[in-house]
Protein backbone atom coordinates (compact mmCIF):
# COMPACT_ATOMS: atom_id res chain seq x y z
CA UNK A 1 0.00 0.00 0.00
CA UNK A 2 1.29 3.46 -0.91
CA UNK A 3 0.97 6.27 1.63
CA UNK A 4 1.23 9.91 0.58
CA UNK A 5 0.66 13.05 2.63
CA UNK A 6 -1.31 16.21 1.95
CA UNK A 7 -0.46 17.49 -1.56
CA UNK A 8 2.27 14.98 -2.42
CA UNK A 9 1.95 13.47 -5.87
CA UNK A 10 0.31 10.06 -5.96
CA UNK A 11 -1.59 7.71 -8.27
CA UNK A 12 -4.69 9.14 -9.97
CA UNK A 13 -7.84 7.62 -11.39
CA UNK A 14 -8.90 5.27 -8.59
CA UNK A 15 -12.10 4.80 -6.62
CA UNK A 16 -11.88 7.40 -3.87
CA UNK A 17 -13.44 7.54 -0.41
CA UNK A 18 -12.91 10.04 2.40
CA UNK A 19 -13.05 10.02 6.20
CA UNK A 20 -11.24 9.48 9.49
CA UNK A 21 -11.82 5.69 9.44
CA UNK A 22 -11.08 5.43 13.15
CA UNK A 23 -11.39 1.76 14.06
CA UNK A 24 -11.83 0.56 10.47
CA UNK A 25 -14.97 -1.03 11.92
CA UNK A 26 -17.69 -3.05 10.20
CA UNK A 27 -19.37 0.11 8.91
CA UNK A 28 -16.11 1.22 7.30
CA UNK A 29 -15.57 -2.30 6.00
CA UNK A 30 -18.98 -2.25 4.28
CA UNK A 31 -18.08 1.02 2.55
CA UNK A 32 -14.70 -0.35 1.48
CA UNK A 33 -16.35 -3.49 0.05
CA UNK A 34 -18.38 -1.24 -2.25
CA UNK A 35 -15.23 0.65 -3.23
CA UNK A 36 -13.38 -2.61 -3.97
CA UNK A 37 -16.29 -3.86 -6.06
CA UNK A 38 -16.32 -0.66 -8.14
CA UNK A 39 -12.54 -0.75 -8.50
CA UNK A 40 -12.68 -4.33 -9.76
CA UNK A 41 -15.45 -3.48 -12.22
CA UNK A 42 -13.50 -0.53 -13.62
CA UNK A 43 -10.04 -2.12 -13.50
CA UNK A 44 -8.58 0.38 -11.06
CA UNK A 45 -7.64 0.70 -7.36
CA UNK A 46 -9.12 1.90 -4.07
CA UNK A 47 -7.84 5.16 -2.60
CA UNK A 48 -8.64 6.52 0.87
CA UNK A 49 -8.22 10.08 2.00
CA UNK A 50 -7.73 9.83 5.75
CA UNK A 51 -8.16 12.92 7.93
CA UNK A 52 -5.72 13.20 10.85
CA UNK A 53 -5.95 14.42 13.58
CA UNK A 54 -9.64 13.89 14.26
CA UNK A 55 -11.72 16.80 12.87
CA UNK A 56 -13.64 17.24 16.17
CA UNK A 57 -10.34 17.73 17.95
CA UNK A 58 -9.36 20.49 15.52
CA UNK A 59 -12.73 22.22 15.13
CA UNK A 60 -14.17 21.91 18.65
CA UNK A 61 -11.11 21.37 20.81
CA UNK A 62 -12.50 18.01 21.97
CA UNK A 63 -10.28 15.20 23.18
CA UNK A 64 -11.35 12.27 21.01
CA UNK A 65 -9.98 8.96 22.36
CA UNK A 66 -9.02 6.96 19.29
CA UNK A 67 -9.92 3.36 18.56
CA UNK A 68 -6.84 3.08 16.35
CA UNK A 69 -3.64 5.07 16.26
CA UNK A 70 -2.59 6.21 12.79
CA UNK A 71 -0.10 3.35 12.10
CA UNK A 72 -2.72 0.82 13.25
CA UNK A 73 -5.32 2.39 10.97
CA UNK A 74 -3.00 2.25 7.98
CA UNK A 75 -2.28 -1.42 8.62
CA UNK A 76 -6.00 -2.22 8.90
CA UNK A 77 -6.80 -0.30 5.70
CA UNK A 78 -4.13 -2.25 3.85
CA UNK A 79 -5.82 -5.44 5.07
CA UNK A 80 -9.06 -4.16 3.52
CA UNK A 81 -7.50 -4.01 0.06
CA UNK A 82 -6.79 -0.27 -0.03
CA UNK A 83 -3.98 0.50 -2.47
CA UNK A 84 -3.36 4.19 -1.73
CA UNK A 85 -3.91 6.28 1.41
CA UNK A 86 -3.50 10.03 1.37
CA UNK A 87 -3.13 11.29 4.96
CA UNK A 88 -4.64 14.77 5.07
CA UNK A 89 -3.34 16.95 7.90
CA UNK A 90 -6.68 18.24 9.14
CA UNK A 91 -6.29 21.90 10.09
CA UNK A 92 -8.62 24.89 10.54
CA UNK A 93 -7.39 26.08 7.14
CA UNK A 94 -8.46 22.83 5.45
CA UNK A 95 -11.82 22.96 7.22
CA UNK A 96 -12.35 26.56 6.04
CA UNK A 97 -11.85 25.75 2.36
CA UNK A 98 -15.04 26.28 0.35
CA UNK A 99 -16.40 22.94 -0.82
CA UNK A 100 -15.97 23.94 -4.47
CA UNK A 101 -12.29 24.76 -3.95
CA UNK A 102 -11.76 21.46 -2.15
CA UNK A 103 -13.29 19.60 -5.10
CA UNK A 104 -11.33 21.37 -7.84
CA UNK A 105 -7.98 22.08 -6.14
CA UNK A 106 -7.76 18.92 -4.05
CA UNK A 107 -9.98 16.03 -5.14
CA UNK A 108 -9.80 16.57 -8.90
CA UNK A 109 -6.26 17.94 -8.99
CA UNK A 110 -4.63 15.33 -6.76
CA UNK A 111 -6.81 12.26 -7.29
CA UNK A 112 -8.94 12.70 -10.42
CA UNK A 113 -11.07 9.74 -9.28
CA UNK A 114 -13.02 7.62 -11.73
CA UNK A 115 -15.70 7.37 -9.09
CA UNK A 116 -16.23 8.18 -5.43
CA UNK A 117 -17.82 6.13 -2.66
CA UNK A 118 -19.06 8.01 0.41
CA UNK A 119 -20.69 7.15 3.68
CA UNK A 120 -24.30 8.24 4.08
CA UNK A 121 -23.45 11.17 6.40
CA UNK A 122 -20.17 12.44 4.92
CA UNK A 123 -19.79 16.21 4.48
CA UNK A 124 -16.78 18.35 3.69
CA UNK A 125 -15.78 21.97 3.11
CA UNK A 126 -16.65 25.18 4.91
CA UNK A 127 -19.96 24.88 6.71
CA UNK A 128 -20.12 21.19 5.73
CA UNK A 129 -21.51 22.35 2.38
CA UNK A 130 -20.02 19.46 0.40
CA UNK A 131 -21.80 16.12 0.11
CA UNK A 132 -22.63 13.50 -2.54
CA UNK A 133 -25.17 15.77 -4.27
CA UNK A 134 -22.61 18.60 -4.39
CA UNK A 135 -20.01 16.28 -5.94
CA UNK A 136 -22.46 15.08 -8.60
CA UNK A 137 -23.18 18.69 -9.56
CA UNK A 138 -19.44 19.02 -10.17
CA UNK A 139 -19.37 16.08 -12.55
CA UNK A 140 -18.21 13.33 -10.22
CA UNK A 141 -19.81 9.88 -10.14
CA UNK A 142 -20.66 9.14 -6.49
CA UNK A 143 -22.17 6.12 -4.75
CA UNK A 144 -23.52 6.67 -1.25
CA UNK A 145 -23.37 3.70 1.13
CA UNK A 146 -26.20 3.46 3.69
CA UNK A 147 -25.42 2.89 7.37
CA UNK A 148 -24.67 -0.61 8.57
CA UNK A 149 -27.16 -1.27 11.36
CA UNK A 150 -26.56 -3.46 14.40
CA UNK A 151 -29.34 -3.66 16.95
CA UNK A 152 -31.25 -1.02 15.00
CA UNK A 153 -28.47 1.57 15.31
CA UNK A 154 -25.65 2.53 12.92
CA UNK A 155 -22.24 1.03 13.58
CA UNK A 156 -20.06 4.06 14.30
CA UNK A 157 -16.74 4.94 15.90
CA UNK A 158 -18.45 7.01 18.61
CA UNK A 159 -20.75 4.12 19.53
CA UNK A 160 -17.81 1.72 19.80
CA UNK A 161 -15.84 4.27 21.80
CA UNK A 162 -18.62 4.49 24.38
CA UNK A 163 -18.76 0.71 24.70
CA UNK A 164 -15.02 0.42 25.28
CA UNK A 165 -15.00 3.19 27.88
CA UNK A 166 -17.81 1.33 29.67
CA UNK A 167 -15.84 -1.94 29.66
CA UNK A 168 -18.17 -3.62 27.14
CA UNK A 169 -15.26 -4.89 25.08
CA UNK A 170 -17.09 -8.00 23.81
CA UNK A 171 -19.93 -5.83 22.46
CA UNK A 172 -17.38 -3.44 20.91
CA UNK A 173 -15.70 -6.38 19.17
CA UNK A 174 -19.03 -7.25 17.52
CA UNK A 175 -19.12 -3.80 15.93
CA UNK A 176 -15.41 -3.65 15.14
CA UNK A 177 -15.39 -7.08 13.50
CA UNK A 178 -12.39 -8.03 15.67
CA UNK A 179 -11.28 -7.60 19.29
CA UNK A 180 -10.20 -4.18 20.50
CA UNK A 181 -6.41 -4.20 20.72
CA UNK A 182 -3.42 -2.26 21.92
CA UNK A 183 0.13 -2.60 20.66
CA UNK A 184 3.41 -1.41 22.10
CA UNK A 185 6.88 -2.17 23.35
CA UNK A 186 7.14 -4.19 26.57
CA UNK A 187 8.66 -2.24 29.45
CA UNK A 188 10.14 -3.45 32.73
CA UNK A 189 7.80 -2.92 35.68
CA UNK A 190 8.22 -3.33 39.44
CA UNK A 191 8.00 -7.14 39.06
CA UNK A 192 5.31 -7.40 41.74
CA UNK A 193 3.32 -9.86 39.62
CA UNK A 194 6.43 -12.00 39.14
CA UNK A 195 6.87 -12.19 42.91
CA UNK A 196 3.25 -13.35 43.17
CA UNK A 197 3.91 -16.15 40.66
CA UNK A 198 2.30 -14.58 37.58
CA UNK A 199 4.97 -12.68 35.60
CA UNK A 200 3.56 -10.11 33.22
CA UNK A 201 4.57 -8.18 30.13
CA UNK A 202 3.87 -4.50 30.79
CA UNK A 203 2.55 -2.10 28.12
CA UNK A 204 1.96 1.59 28.91
CA UNK A 205 -1.43 2.56 27.48
CA UNK A 206 -1.09 5.10 24.62
CA UNK A 207 -2.45 8.48 25.74
CA UNK A 208 -4.42 8.97 22.50
CA UNK A 209 -6.22 5.62 22.63
CA UNK A 210 -9.67 4.93 24.14
CA UNK A 211 -9.15 3.43 27.60
CA UNK A 212 -11.36 0.70 29.08
CA UNK A 213 -12.08 0.82 32.84
CA UNK A 214 -9.32 -0.48 35.13
CA UNK A 215 -9.69 -4.11 36.07
CA UNK A 216 -9.06 -7.65 34.90
CA UNK A 217 -9.81 -8.93 31.40
CA UNK A 218 -9.43 -12.11 29.40
CA UNK A 219 -7.33 -11.46 26.36
CA UNK A 220 -4.94 -12.78 23.78
CA UNK A 221 -1.33 -11.72 23.29
CA UNK A 222 0.47 -11.94 19.96
CA UNK A 223 4.24 -12.28 19.87
CA UNK A 224 5.31 -14.59 17.06
CA UNK A 225 2.27 -16.73 17.88
CA UNK A 226 -0.87 -16.17 19.92
CA UNK A 227 -1.27 -16.91 23.64
CA UNK A 228 -4.34 -16.71 25.88
CA UNK A 229 -3.66 -14.04 28.47
CA UNK A 230 -4.87 -12.71 31.79
CA UNK A 231 -4.85 -8.92 31.56
CA UNK A 232 -4.80 -6.34 34.32
CA UNK A 233 -5.32 -2.68 33.43
CA UNK A 234 -4.28 -0.40 36.27
CA UNK A 235 -5.94 2.95 37.12
CA UNK A 236 -2.69 4.57 35.98
CA UNK A 237 -3.06 3.11 32.47
CA UNK A 238 -0.53 0.27 32.61
CA UNK A 239 -1.60 -2.96 30.93
CA UNK A 240 -0.07 -6.09 32.43
CA UNK A 241 -0.40 -9.28 30.38
CA UNK A 242 0.26 -12.74 31.82
CA UNK A 243 0.69 -15.07 28.84
CA UNK A 244 -0.61 -18.60 29.43
CA UNK A 245 1.79 -21.15 27.98
CA UNK A 246 4.66 -18.71 27.38
CA UNK A 247 7.95 -20.44 28.14
CA UNK A 248 10.38 -18.06 26.52
CA UNK A 249 12.56 -15.38 28.13
CA UNK A 250 11.22 -12.08 29.45
CA UNK A 251 9.67 -9.97 26.70
CA UNK A 252 11.32 -6.66 27.60
CA UNK A 253 11.78 -4.52 24.48
CA UNK A 254 9.62 -6.77 22.29
CA UNK A 255 6.61 -5.43 20.39
CA UNK A 256 3.44 -7.03 21.72
CA UNK A 257 -0.13 -6.78 20.47
CA UNK A 258 -2.82 -7.56 23.00
CA UNK A 259 -6.48 -8.21 22.19
CA UNK A 260 -8.83 -7.25 25.04
CA UNK A 261 -11.57 -9.82 24.73
CA UNK A 262 -13.78 -9.98 27.86
CA UNK A 263 -14.19 -7.94 31.05
CA UNK A 264 -13.94 -10.10 34.18
CA UNK A 265 -13.95 -7.74 37.17
CA UNK A 266 -13.17 -4.13 38.17
CA UNK A 267 -9.98 -3.01 39.87
CA UNK A 268 -9.90 -3.61 43.64
CA UNK A 269 -8.05 -1.41 46.12
CA UNK A 270 -6.40 -2.30 49.40
CA UNK A 271 -5.96 -6.08 49.09
CA UNK A 272 -3.41 -7.76 51.33
CA UNK A 273 -0.75 -9.90 49.68
CA UNK A 274 -2.60 -13.11 50.59
CA UNK A 275 -5.92 -11.73 49.39
CA UNK A 276 -4.26 -10.59 46.18
CA UNK A 277 -2.79 -14.06 45.60
CA UNK A 278 -6.24 -15.61 46.10
CA UNK A 279 -7.82 -13.10 43.74
CA UNK A 280 -5.16 -13.66 41.07
CA UNK A 281 -5.71 -17.42 41.32
CA UNK A 282 -9.45 -16.88 40.79
CA UNK A 283 -8.82 -14.49 37.89
CA UNK A 284 -6.52 -17.03 36.30
CA UNK A 285 -9.12 -19.75 36.74
CA UNK A 286 -11.70 -17.58 34.97
CA UNK A 287 -9.37 -16.79 32.10
CA UNK A 288 -8.54 -20.45 31.64
CA UNK A 289 -12.24 -21.30 31.70
CA UNK A 290 -12.96 -18.55 29.16
CA UNK A 291 -10.46 -20.09 26.74
CA UNK A 292 -11.58 -23.66 27.53
CA UNK A 293 -8.25 -24.60 29.11
CA UNK A 294 -9.65 -26.30 32.25
In the CATH hierarchy, the architecture of the largest domain is: 3-Layer(aba) Sandwich
Amount of helix? 25-40%
Strand order of the largest sheet: 1-4-3-2-5-6
As a whole number of angstroms, the C-alpha radius of gyration is 22 Å
Question: Termini distance?
Answer: 43 Å
Quaternary state reads single chain
CATH third-level topology of the largest domain: Rossmann fold
Work out the count of structural domains. Answer: 2
CATH class of the largest domain: Alpha Beta
Q: Into which percentage range does the β-strand content fall? A: 25-35%
Number of strand segments: 14
Keywords, separated by commas or semicolons:
Rossmann fold; elongated; 294 residues; 2 domains; alpha/beta; 10 helices; single chain; Elongation Factor Tu (Ef-tu), domain 3; 32% helix
Question: In short, what is this structure?
Answer:
With 294 residues, this protein is an alpha/beta fold. It is built from ten helices and 14 strands.
Overview of this structure, please?
This protein is 32% helix and 28% strand. With 294 residues, the chain is an alpha/beta fold. The chain folds into two domains: 2-148, Rossmann fold (3-Layer(aba) Sandwich); 180-290, Beta Barrel (Elongation Factor Tu (Ef-tu), domain 3), CATH 2.40.30.30. The strands form three sheets. Strands 1-4-3-2-5-6 form a six-stranded parallel beta sheet. Strands 9-14-11-12-13-10 form a six-stranded antiparallel beta sheet. Strands 7-8 form a two-stranded antiparallel ribbon. A hairpin with a 2-residue loop joins strand 7 and strand 8. Helix 7 runs antiparallel to helix 8 (169-176). The radius of gyration is 22 Å and the shape is elongated. The two termini are 43 Å apart. The model has no long low-confidence stretch (mean pLDDT 93).
Amino acid sequence: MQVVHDRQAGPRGGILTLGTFDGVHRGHQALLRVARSRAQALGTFVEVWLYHPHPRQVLRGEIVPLLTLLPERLHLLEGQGVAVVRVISFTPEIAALPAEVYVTDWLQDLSAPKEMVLGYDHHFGRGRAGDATFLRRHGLQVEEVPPLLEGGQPVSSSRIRRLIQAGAVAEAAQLLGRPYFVEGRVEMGRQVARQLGTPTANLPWPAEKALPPPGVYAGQAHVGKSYPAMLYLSPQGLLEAHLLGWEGPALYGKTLRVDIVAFLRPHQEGLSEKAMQRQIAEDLRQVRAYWGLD
